[in-house]
Predict the 3D structure of the following.
Amino acid sequence: PAAAPADARARIGMVKDVLPHLGEGYIEAALGCYGGDADVTIASLVGGDVHARLRNVDPSLPARKREGPARYDAADASAGAASARVRQKEILRAAEKAAENAAFALAAAMEYNDDYDDQYDDVNKMGVGDDG
C-alpha cells in the first residue's frame, strides 16, 4: 500500500516535468482519465486531445489533501466518538424537554374553562332569537 502512493506521486512528477504549468490535482485527474499511464497522459495533453472529463477542470487545480493512516489514532477516534455520544444525548434530552413543555402548554390551553357562560346555548339550538 505504501508503494502505490509513491508510484502515483512519481507518475504525477513525470507529467509535471513535461507540463509544469499544470496543477497536481489536474494531472491526477488526467492520469485517472488515461488509466494511470503517464506517457499516454502526456501525449494526450501535449497533443491537445483532452479527455471530455477534463474539459471543465481548472488546469491549475492543486493536489488533493491526503491523510495517511499514520495520522489516524484509534484512541483519539474512540474519545471523539464518546464525546459525540455525550453531546448527542444532551441534544436529545433538550429536544425531549422542549417537546414535553410544548405538550404541557397545549394541554393547558385545551383545559376545560369553567368560566364559559353556556346559559344561552340551548336558546340558539331551538331557533329562538334566530333571525334567519
In short: The two ends are 90 Å apart (CA to CA). Residues 7 and 73 are 26 Å apart (CA to CA).
